[in-house]
Amino acid sequence: MTDLFQPGTIGWLDTLIRIGAATFLPLLIGLERFVHRKPIDFRPFVIISVAACALIIGSFELMTEGGDPVDPTRVMEGVITGIGFIGAGAMFRQGKYVQGAGSAASIWCAGVIGLLCGMGEIWLAGIVAAIVLVLLLVSGPFTGNWDPTSTDSANGKGADDSEATNLLP
Q1: Which of 40, 76, 105, 161 counts the highest number of beta carbons within 10 A?
Q2: Three-state secondary-structure class, residue 99
């Protein structure tokens, strides 16, 4: 009966480190999105990552316990596909502009970070989180020109005025 409430293959400390990393790393990305008032706040980043982490840890546990064989790669495929649908919900079209692609890609990446943490590859999850966070922080001035809600301080026009660059035909 007590086997139901403890990890079978990995220890408690390893489990807590993996789930802790799956919480902290996407939180940084989510906070960046939240601070910049993007379509998705920080909570889904953490929730998706922790859930993906738990799913992959659970699939490894089931795989090593014997019984019915569980293929962790199929669990990963399902997680990545499902998160793709969530990310698609963050994207929307406003006139000739598509917004939310950065948040959609970031939320998908949060799922990948969770999977990596669940597999114990925290070093790789940290690298991925750092790259995404730096990209989001550094790219702001460049992507602001494509945001129809941003304003040009020089002439007071929004990007959706006649001089805007259209992203879609």
Answers
A1: 40
A2: strand
CA–CA dist 15, 41 (Å, integer): 26
Task: Say if residues 45 and 29 touch (Cβ distance below 8 Å).
Answer: yes
Distance CA 72, CA 66 (A): 14
- For the whole model, what pTM was predicted? 0.77
The pLDDT tens digits for 75-128 are 899 888 988 888 888 787 777 777 888 888 889 999 999 999 999 999 999 999
Task: List, in order, residues 6 or more apart from 6 with CB less than 8 Å away.
Answer: 12
For residues 34 and 41, the answer to whether their CB atoms sit within 8 Å is yes
CA–CA distances in Å: residue 88 to residues 62, 63, 130, 141, 154: 31, 32, 23, 24, 34
**Angstrom distance (rounded) from CA 128 to CA 122:** 10
Cα-only R_g, the chain = 19
Q: Identify the bridge partners of residue 93 per DSSP, sorted by sequence position.
A: 98
Q: Residue 17: CB partners within 8 Å, gap ≥ 6?
A: 122
